[in-house]
Design goal:
The structure is a homodimer. Chain A has about 350 residues and is an alpha/beta fold. Helices cover about 45% and strands about 20% of the residues of chain A.
Chain lengths: ~350, ~350
């Protein structure tokens, strides 16, 4: 099974996403996008599984160097970024090189920032090996590293030339990590597509069991929705903010738990619950929508409560969120399944109550 | 005297360059381009001279923070870049902030890279206070920091929203630094404008004496030529490489002398001499053009020889130049005053001879 969609930008920078099973080893897909040198950024776990396959799929005569970075959000630092640049320069890669990200969202974000800024921008290919990265971070050109002061505070908008989304790579994905990706898939239903949400309600068990047809459908529809947002608002001037549904809360949860206790998708799952609670309190959304989202997240095996988090600390942590404009924290609220909007401000007591209703002390 | 030109890109990102005398203190020029916060990057020398004037010209109620960085190419490091990001985050600047570069090319390059990558890009204003920065680095959106492995290896293309080129700031510029800027002015004549080159031959003494009318004319024409190159080739895919005339040699000279012995413009002056010698050896240029360039650089008080440099070391240093494509070093050669072209390769012995002819042992 093989399929593709195109992320439409301005013509010159449009790029394809190929997805299906076992596309990673298909040399014919990569060949048109690389020159004489490639620089692969990955981590040890992923390298053990897929690096040989990727290298074998490179055209003959292409020189490949590899940088294996640390795992997890903790490795997504300006120090890792600088080390990769050191390695690129040490190996004398020039402007015609192509950086390939082989791994999850962390690898993609850091490698993308490297590609965006090495010699003011070189070629970039995303090969996301997690569900989360395939449906979220690999599409749309956001690259970044974290800072002590907050997540993704340093980065660039930089589009890949190609995304290869191989669902066969999920076979080796731990259950928790796989489900964290399902959280973002559910998000697409909530923010943009009532029918897709209903499909997810019907197929959540098949998705949990990683039924290939269900997985490919979920990845494809998620990428289509994301690509449409990116096409309409590449640099997050407005509309693209809808994709951050649940993320204002989610980022604060991650920050307060040191990026350690929950995976990003899990934090977003809890954050979506809080965002639905806030939407309900602002009377933006019918009560049954909140219940449907809650129920689907639970059926998907995702956390919907943050144990032991301090509500005051959450409020403070949200103050340095990137989505702050002139001192006000913006929220994405739901108006009903399939539709969200951005509000510039929300009453502090309602935000507190929404957080508190999803925190167990 | 007040004038402006527009750097034309894609409409949305077009930006004006205002130039003239004492434009820095004109609040009406800055006000439309800033929101509630600005973050000024400068150095101590420049801050002593112009920071108060700039701050007074900001609209009432705008919060301004200042970062004073070290001086010279040595300060143009990823460490300085990271320190400025730390300060921005510490002071809780958000996405709506505007980074203002107040200083020479080093300040502009580093501050621009910060603006390009803080929260994936914030507003940016260039206030270049040296001739070199006004005619070269502040226009065109190149931002970067240096790496041990080479100059400007890490950076981004990121356009300012406004450039304020105040020639009154030259009054405090040391002679050597001012003349280093004249080197780039002469470059514009060589690469793109026979008439401008002839005007420079006639007005080089007035320019050296910093006659205001002559200076403004030189800055305006230089910016027009550069803006035209940038408009036609924003990301240096081809044509914009012409602006690098003399720079392949110049960068190698700077690298071998640890960015310490010559100012950038001085190294470019020597590099242009070497590039003219190479052009002559490749029979690309009439002998009298080489002589005219040499003579104008000398009359402008610029160095035309590199004492004590090793030719072999120069060749090696050029191997990691950004302008290398697939192992070959590209050169910009002159076809006659006002016209240059890029060649993908040059015979090693001719490159050596060209360097050697401008090196005194």
């Amino acid at each position: 099974m093989r399929d593709s969609i195109t992320v439409e930008l301005d013509g010159a920078r449009d790029y394809p996403i190929f997805f299906g099973s076992d596309v990673l080893g298909d040399a014919s897909l990569i060949a048109p996008y690389v020159g004489g040198q490639v620089f692969i950024v990955t981590n040890d776990v992923v390298a053990n599984l897929y690096l040989d396959t990727l290298r074998e799929s490179l055209p003959t005569g292409v020189r490949s160097d590899v940088f294996s970075m640390g795992e997890g959000e903790r490795a997504k630092t300006i120090e890792t970024y600088a080390s990769i640049l050191d390695a690129l320069i040490e190996a004398r890669h020039n402007r015609t090189t192509t950086v390939i990200a082989l791994g999850g969202g962390v690898v993609g974000d850091v490698a993308g920032f490297v590609a965006a800024t090495y010699q003011r921008g070189v070629g970039f290919i995303q090969i996301p090996t997690t569900l989360l990265a395939q449906v979220d971070s690999s599409v749309g050109g956001k690259t970044a590293v974290n800072h002590e002061g907050g997540k993704n505070l340093i980065g660039a908008f930089y589009q890949p030339r190609l995304v290869l989304a191989d669902v066969a790579t999920f076979r080796s994905l731990p259950e928790r990590e796989y489900l964290a990706g399902v959280a973002e898939v559910i998000k697409y239903g909530v923010i943009a597509d009532t029918e897709f949400f209903a499909w997810l309600e019907e197929n959540v068990d098949a998705l949990r069991e990683r039924d290939e047809t269900a997985v490919i459908n979920a990845v494809r529809r998620s990428c289509e929705i994301k690509a449409d947002f990116v096409r309409r608002d590449e640099r997050e001037q407005g509309l693209r903010a809808h994709l951050n549904f649940g993320h204002t809360f989610g980022h604060a949860i991650e920050k307060l738990t040191d990026f350690d206790r929950w995976l990003h998708g899990e934090a977003v799952s809890i954050g979506m619950g809080m965002a639905m609670e806030l939407s309900a309190r602002l009377e933006q959304v019918p009560a049954d929508a909140t219940e449907r989202v809650h129920s689907l997240l639970e059926r998907a095996g995702l956390p919907t409560r943050a144990d032991g988090l301090d509500t005051g600390a959450m409020i403070e942590a949200m103050g340095m969120d990137k989505k702050v404009v002139d001192g006000k924290t913006r929220f994405v609220v739901c108006e009903g399944i399939g539709s969200v909007r951005v509000i510039d401000e929300a009453p502090g007591d309602l935000v507190r109550a929404s957080i508190a209703s999803r925190v167990t002390l």
